[in-house]
Amino acid sequence: MKDNIISEMDVTTDKIKISARDVQVYYGDNHAIKDVSVEIQDKTVTAFIGPSGCGKSTFLRCINRMNDTIDICRVEGDILIDGEDIYDSNVDPVQLRAKVGMVFQKPNPFPKSIYDNVAYGPRIHGLARNKSELDDIVERALKRAAIWNEVKDRLHAPGTGLSGGQQQRLCIARAIATEPEVLLMDEPCSALDPIATAQVEELIDELRQDYSVVIVTHSMQQAARVSQKTAFFHLGNLVEYGETDKIFTSPEDPRTESYITGRIG
Amino acid sequence: MPASWILLSVLALTLIGYFLARQRAVASAGGDRRLLHSLPNYYGLNAALAAAVPALALLCAWMIIQPLAINSYISNDLPAEVRAVPGELSLAMADISRVADGLSEAVARGAITTEELDKLDAEASDVRSLLAGVGVALGSDVDAQSLDLARSYRAATNTGNILRNVVVLLVALAGMAIAVMITNKDFRARNFVERAILFLLVAAASVAILTTIGIVFSLIFNTVDFFSRYPADDFFFGTRWEPSFSGRGGASDLGFLPLIWGTLFISLIALIVAVPLGLMSAIYLSEYASKPVRAVAKPLLEVLAGIPTIVYGLFALLTVGPLLLDIFGRDGALGVNWMSGGTAAMTAGLVMGMMLIPFVSSLSDDIINAVPQAMRDGSYGLGATQSETLKQVILPAALPGIVGAILLAASRAIGETMIVVLGAGAAASLSMNPFDAMTTVTAKIVSQLTGDGEFNSPETLVAFALGMTLFVITLALNIFALWIVRRYREQYE
């Protein structure tokens, strides 16, 4: 418990990494996100929780402008990363996504070798000057994603041949190989068994040292285990945002309390 | 009673069976349909199927077998020297059945009575003009023996038909009766109908398979016949294609190589045109085009696939050929004098390529769309641009399917005929120049079989050997395409 308090204190001293102000998202006529303002701190794990369809994934996808790939989606309001508006017309969404990595709900390794999966980002962004540098990047990323020992002897085997949990860690390795500053995770454990989930959660906790991690999850236990800050979404609104311990022990909003006690959702 | 009446009677029995069985089932449950094992319709359908299916199957089989049986029975009476030669025999039998049909027609129209027919004498009366009077033209006068045989042919056919009608009706009646008899409220009609539908579907599927087998066999027999008259190595390795027609003018050179060279050359040109254009339009349509553009452009592109190939042939002959001649001909824009006439491998190849564009693009479009969205998301999420995603993730994932599409297009190209007939010329040559006139296997099959050559000379039988070789090549290509698609498909997910 004492460790926990110390880490909470660390958190409060950290600077703001992502700051969203009055964000609105529309899918066609559907107003999916309403007036969401949130400040996400650096080197912290922030969890978005809420019932299905509450807009938490949609909001997550605004942070790296993945919603741009959906024709009917429209985003209003400001999202700033390090004080810079990512929806500014000067910002190249492709560059932004290199800085804000993303891990998806379902493991989605490319139909390539394990090595090529991890080397994909560094190659397209030209992060390595030569083959041995690329090898180093791949090895580092796989080690950071805690999968190196399992795959080091078969780097050139197809990534699709791994188990579900290994595939998801491979996808995390792929995301961190481009050296992002923020890592977005959209229900990264929902397709995994409990053991693989535990491995990924452990990994998320370690990644906090270097990255600002934002994770969407359906599991409140998971949010409580891995995050320091929690945001509760309901029907497109950000209902409550604060320290994870506080949200789960003494929520201010009655809706939050209903959700975490299992009455709604 | 003609076959159509039998058909109608069977259908009537089917309907009667349907209503009888349905009624009987409902009655056996005392009018409460909840007590029935199956819905009332199933009892009706069961009886209907029992009446129709065996009877109709028997009718079909009978109609196929009866002429064969009568033929072999009649041909026993033909002179031995006629029976010895297969061509003569079939010719004589065709004459006899034609005379027999003519006699039936004459009786039906009242030009002659049945009694007169029995007494008809080939020497005394002019059978040929009698039949001409009812619209059946014969090639020669009818001699006494043919007339006799035709009479017995006609008698046998009539007896057979009557027997057929009786048996078919009996079978339909029996089927209906049995089905109605066993109908009661506990009878599992639904399961029977389910089985019957399964068999109907299997039968439908086997028609296509049996047809394929039939085609292969008809090719094989004629091909074997050809190779018994013409040496196989001269055919496969001969470099000259100079058939002499009507058996006059001595031996023919029937070398396969110039034809397959033309086929492969023209197909290659077609694929060089169709694959990049088709693939790029597929990529544009599936990845870049907005919804409205796609909704208009995709059907427009697929209209190309609906144009008959003869129209493409005309386009090649009238537009593309002269255009190419203006550029590459003697007084053309480039002044290179590579091309001496509008018909050339290049003309046919270009037009065939255009024909194949929708084929490649439509298949590739489906395959690219089948690549999971998660792949695109994964790549965009790493900061890849659209074309990087395409090049490095989507195309590799879709590659096996695309290769399959290309190979299918290739077998279309190899089998294409009309564009070649009109666009490529008729000279079989082993030229390397794409602006020379060339011809293909398919075009030569057409030219060897049109005209009035008999099916007993190497010059006509070679068409079957060509067809067989082509069939084997395209079959191999298709199998290879399917193999590639299957082999690499698993790596998707």
Automatic annotation (TrEMBL), chain A:
It comes from the Bacteria. The keyword ATP-binding applies. GO terms for biological process: phosphate ion transmembrane transport. Gene3D superfamilies: P-loop containing nucleotide triphosphate hydrolases. GO terms for cellular component: plasma membrane. It is found in: Cell inner membrane. The keyword Transport applies. Keywords: ATP-binding, Cell membrane, Membrane, Nucleotide-binding, Phosphate transport, Translocase, Transport. Part of the ABC transporter complex PstSACB involved in phosphate import. Responsible for energy coupling to the transport system. This is Phosphate ABC transporter ATP-binding protein, PhoT family. It comes from Sulfitobacter marinus. The lineage of its organism: Bacteria, Pseudomonadati, Pseudomonadota, Alphaproteobacteria, Rhodobacterales.
From TrEMBL, chain B:
It comes from the Bacteria. Residues 260-481 form the ABC transmembrane type-1 domain. GO terms for biological process: phosphate ion transport. GO terms for molecular function: phosphate transmembrane transporter activity. The chain crosses the membrane at residues 6-21, 42-65, 162-184, 196-221, 259-279, 300-325, 337-360, 393-414, 461-485. Its main location: membrane. It is found in: Cell inner membrane; Cell membrane. Belongs to the binding-protein-dependent transport system permease family. CysTW subfamily. Part of the binding-protein-dependent transport system for phosphate; probably responsible for the translocation of the substrate across the membrane. This is Phosphate transport system permease protein. It comes from Sulfitobacter marinus.
